[in-house]
Structures are given as C-alpha cells and as structure tokens.
Amino acid sequence: MKKKIKKSRKTKDDFTQEAYMGIRRMFFLNEIIPGQKISYGDLANRLEMSTTPVIQALKRLEYQGLVRHEPNRGYYTENISLREITEIYEFRELIETSLLSGTIARIDKTGLKTLKNALNSHLEAVRDIYLKERLLKDMEFHLVLAGLSGCTIQFNTLKSLFDLLYLKYRGNILFITPMETVDSEHIKLYDCIAGANRDGAITILSQHISNVKNHAIISINRMDREKNIKNL
Fold first, then answer.
1. Were 213 and a residue from 2, 81, 89, 107 both cysteine, which residue would form a disulfide, CB within 3.0 to 4.6 Å?
2. Is 35 helix (H, G, I), strand (E, B) or coil?
C-alpha cells in the first residue's frame, strides 16, 4: 500500500520571502520608483496574498534602506540621493579592489574559466537593447570576481551595495557609461587577473568603478536640472 505524500504547507516566513522577492522584482522593473508612496494593500493585490507578509517584507526593505516608514502615513520609497550613490560607489571601489589580491592568489583554472564565462555573458548582454539584462550581467561579473577571493563578509556586503544600486536607482542613471568603455575595462581587468598582474588589475578596476560613478553623478545632476526647470 502506497503512502500518501503530504504536501508541506507554506509558513509565515515562506510568504514573507515570497512577498519580499516580488517587491524586489517590482523595484528592479521600475514598477516602484523613488519617492513613491507605497500602498501595501495594492501590493498585496498584485502579489495575490494577504497584507501581513507584505508588511513584513516592507519592514525588511526598510532595514535595507530601500523604503522608509512614516508613522500614521505609511511606507514610501526613498528618494534618489547624490550623496548616497557617491558613497556606494566609493565603498564598492574600496571593497572590490581590496579583494583582488586574494582573488589572484587563489584563482585556479576552474575559477578563471568561471570568470571568463561571466565576462562573456556580460559582453553578449551589453549589445542587447534590454537594459535590465546588462545590469544583471554586469553585477554578476563583479560578484563572481569578488566571490573568487573567498572572503564571505566582504562579498555579502558588496551584494547589499548592489541591491541599493540596482533596486533603487534606474538603469538609465547607472548605465550611461559608453558600452565600448565598459567592455574594454572588463576585458583588460580579466587579462590582468589571468596574467597575475595584481597592480594592473587594481588600477583598472579602480578606474572602472570611478568612471561609472562619475557618469552616474552627471546623470543625476542633469535630472535635477531638468526637474528644476520644469518647476519654474
């Protein structure tokens, strides 16, 4: 006689995680934008679940700095901040360059192949008109590189920084750096790592992150000017 297999029921944590991932996806697809008031009732309807896991997910996002809660008013997405985006890129540069020595010391043929595959995925994606694909593949390349260092805490911190960048700030802010420039810098970075050129890798990675930061700052300043003109 066959035993009936009981289907496991979802727990409260399962529903909260499902809500959290669903809201993250809305951020990434720009369905939720900076400075917007968030209706958790509307989110619950869109996610087809009760408001309880949605509120728990919003609390988690509040902890990450993606939303804020105002007493008696509800939840809001945080506004774009020039100071914040500058700090994020500077912190990224500090973390990523500091991990390069460990990566170059530890990397083997398998690790080098993994990094090469991440590079190729990015090079293919940046020629696609789908900007979200470019964002994801760029992030994956940098995270693969950082992960090869074996430093878990710095790697997880870097993931949190990417969350702030790619969920809060739109792609047309982050990716105005010329595609050819990004391609070239990633290729040179890989070549330095493959050749165990630590100093060259650090110089290129530092320059790359600084270039992207400067272009993002230019984009934000231009948006502010256009907004001020409209408000005149």
1. 89
2. coil
